[in-house]
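URGENT: need a sanity check before tomorrow's submission.

F., can you look over the Glutathione-dependent peroxiredoxin record below? I want to be sure the sequence and structure line up before it goes out.
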Amino acid sequence: MIKPGDTLPEVSFSQLTSDGMKNPSTADIFKGKKVVLFAVPGAFTPTCSESHLPGYIALADQIKAKGVDSIVCTSMNDAFVMAAWAETQNSEEITFLADGGGAFHKATGLTMDTGDFGGVRSQRYAMIVDDGKVTLLNVEPPKSFEVSKAETILAAL
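Structure tokens as predicted:
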């Protein structure tokens, strides 16, 4: 599993924008920037939609005031699902990146097998990335939601 001090792997994500499908790379997203990246096991799932994402939306201004250039949410959903989820959440402050095939999560060792719930998914986590290097990584134990909360990351900045 990736750890603080490691550089993120070079992969591409999918992002559905008003200009169509984009495929930003890790370098496009993280190079020369301070980024808070958080991941959810699945868009539209209860904890993700009712707590995890809303926390980052509510605290986005305070997080960015700490020198963060962008807040990114990723999941092993496709770009269409991520765009639909973003639209339902009124979340202009957050960048949504799809890792539908799991290239990023497999390369970082941040996957989990949920069996019949949805198969291989991203673990729930949050990280602070400075110029492509992980400076903080908080991975939730199964069925937990504490260390990846927006409040926890804000306190760590």
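My own read: The CA atoms of residues 43 and 49 lie 7 Å apart. The chain has a mean pLDDT of 93. If you see anything odd, call me.
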